[in-house]
Amino acid sequence: MFGACLLNRPAVRAGRMCRRQLLATAHGIGKAQFSTSIHPKTKFYVTQPIFYVNSEPHIGHFYTMVLSDTIKRFADLCGKTTKLSSGTDEHGQKIQQAADLANEPPLDFCTRYSDKFRSLAVAANTSATDFIRTTSDDHHTAVRKFWQRLVDGGFIYKGEHSGWYAVSDEAYYTSTQVEERVNDKGESGMYAIESGKRVEWVSEVNYKFRMSVFGERLLKWIEENPSVIYPAVRRNEVLGWLRMGLEDLSVSRPRNRQQWGISVPGDPDHTIYVWVDALINYLTVDGFAQSDVLPFFPPNVQVVGKDIVRFHAVYWPALLMAANLPLPRRILAHAHWTMGAQKMSKSIGNVADPFVDIERFGVDALRYFIVRNGGIADDGDYSNDEVIVRYKKDLVGQLANLAARCLSERLGADLNVFARIGREQLDHAEPGDIALRDMLVALPDRVHVLFEQGEFGRGLALVFDALAVANKHVTENEPWLMVKQAPVPERLQVVLFYSLEAVRLASIMLLPVMPIKAAHLLDHLDITDNE
Asked: Residue 428's CB: how many other CB atoms inside 10 A?
């Protein structure tokens, strides 16, 4: 989709137009690099939720992948040593049923779908350092080790459990979490309020985790760390659950009902609950199976969808407390995607295939749209038309347009005066330049704050607001007329300086979001990695 864009042209090298000294840190107005306040320590660990392999990857998976990858690349830009985990969740009753329907052995079925998620990660140009499958030997070892810690701590006991169970969610719900509804076929039944999935009453003997004893500690943890769950609407949701009180958690299923999973150590008649199994993947990828010394754990940011907040913000930290392991520093729970303001559904045909749309629009164009328009607190609405609008308005209309106008050879940027102009503009600028200068000076720190929160869409809006002002500045100053004057006024070089400084800053801030095209544009400017 970038076929006609400047970003696809060969880089202009030193001697023809802009060499790296043109916009180097000492000469530019804005900072070349973000500050490293994202976290005081050097290592930075980002996790994706592992994806359930009972269906094809969809645009929501693409969003989660790209959002977590953007966070990881932002940490890279801040000078961190990073780790990004991804993978597939391959156990549970749903997988067992899906494999039976496909007439495949469960492991073959899981491998086929796991490979599709690996392919999407590659197609999306994500930079995950680890891809875990919960069917791996290492993960089985890690789960059994974690289970034994819970047993040794006295947090596991065997007892009868009754409750409303949703196979689709692989979860029990209390009476206050379900309601009676009539479905589209006019059939009455009980449904989980939170997920909308049908539930059935189940009574069985299984192993239980003493989660109820951690309610007060969890409340204290969240209240003393206001940003640990983001956005606020999800934090408040979790606090509401905790204030209602926690019950002990059923953490196994009878083997005769769920064969596909990890058996309880010492009791082959029971299978470890799939969510306990799945959550431990964040430890497995950091070497928990082999050692108690974990190089990256706990995660700095755990990216999850809003539908699995309960598992990551209640069950997971309670389990970690019981195992005497550190808690995640932050849980970022993003919203979902709709199409035509309706929930995406294969049955009504309003779904988006990420593989098709990557091919249609190009990976960086789609990454930009999904991060710019994707919701953190509120759902985003997906449409091909909106992808094209973002591409034409922002990437072509603002960024590529500004770069193309100011890199024209006939304007003749004088590299020998740019360093002096850059220094002078910080102390003195003409009235017509002050607004743009101040905007560019403030831009990196303003964007950094939003990126650090995970609000990349809002941060990108600031970047393109600055590009719009820079484009207006060029239009008002008309450098293409200045170059025709004899002698050519030095004012021309000031105008070009501001424009190319805006392009440089925008390209750096876009690196985590659209790494291929932003790097291409920086190459075009001959900007090196440390500039």
From this structure: 9
- d(C-alpha 225, C-alpha 219), whole Å: 10
Q: What angle do CA 157, 161, 163 make, to 5 degrees?
A: 145
Chain segment 296-323, per-residue pLDDT in tens: 999 999 999 999 999 999 999 999 999 9
Maximum C-alpha span of the chain: 92
Decide if 35 contacts 99 (C-beta within 8 A).
no
Global confidence as pTM: 0.89
Predicted confidence (pLDDT) per residue in 414-455, tens digit: 756 776 888 888 888 889 999 999 999 999 999 999 999 999
State phi, psi for 159 to the nearest 5 degrees: -170, 175
Distances (CA, A) of 419 to 112, 282, 344, 434: 56, 48, 53, 18
Q: Please give the structure tokens belonging to residue 212.
A: 């109820």
Matching residue, tokens 């789960």: 143
User: For residue 183, what are the CA distances in angstroms to 187, 196, 348?
Assistant: 5, 10, 16
Collapse the DSSP code of 205 into the 3-class scheme (helix H, G, I; strand E, B; otherwise coil) and give the result. strand
Q: pLDDT grade, residue 41 (50/70/90)?
A: low
Sheet holding 342-343, edge to edge: 342-343, 337-339, 380-381
